[in-house]
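Work Package 3 (structural annotation) set out to generate three-dimensional models for the target panel prioritized at the project kickoff. During this period the team completed the workflow that converts sequence records into discrete structure tokens, so that structures can be stored uniformly alongside our sequence database. As a representative example, we reproduce one entry of 290 residues exactly as it appears in the project archive.
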Amino acid sequence: MTGTVVIALERFLPDARRIADALGAEVIPYGPDAFRAAFSRYSRIVALMSAGIAVRGIAPLLADKWRDPAVVVVGPDLRYAVPVVGGHHGANDLARELADLGIEPVITTATETRGRESVEGIAARTGCDIVNRGSTRAVNAAVLDADVPLYAVTGPGIVLAGPGVSLLVRKGEYVVGVGCRKGVGAAEVEKAVRQALERAGVAEGEVLVYATTSQKRGEAGLFSAVEDLGGNLVFLDDETLNAQEAPSPSRASLIGLAGVAEPSALAASKRKELVLAKQTYGSVTVAIAR
């Protein structure tokens, strides 16, 4: 989904076109299927109508705040722009853009009302993706109470973080989950990862992050392989991995885990979609998710 659209009742179409011209957007006349069509095609939606009509139209379509489009309601009098979906995911910014037309943005997300920047805002400003999206609730809540430190780690690097730490890395689509036997060499890990990426049709530059269990913190070969691949390696705790369904049987049960490669890939991915099931290459297992 890309681009912006303005959905408006027939009587408000002239104003809708003025808004669309300012945003470089398209216009869709309101109808029973207008929001459904917009949700599948556009990343940003301006609804020029009463909030009640807009809310009833979008409510059945909401699935995931990380994938739903940003929705801003503009009242028929063109006085206010209210983000109703995806404030931290583009709607606040969209509402602010409408200020150039004399439409006042009404921002209600807690961090912004306190004059503080959210994790999502920092990610957008720095051109990064958030690896562990579930962490943002706790971190944004902490931001309301005090200054939360922001650490910049230049790569290649290794980060070991708890659930209350948001990890921001360069943009990418895929997560490579890696499991390995104790003492594996860097060359074997790197070869296995490259074979898996080739099999999945994924370029190295499309990898968001490499992920594994925190129980592998002592594996120097794994560290070196990810460094040679120019990637970022994150470690996930047992609770996080065991919260994922492992589609394939795994010997990781011997170390108290449902799996390593597949759960790691799924836990750190955006869509929670496995694009390459666990593959075994000698002493290394690799799975890829997006």
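The chain is about 30% helix and 25% strand.
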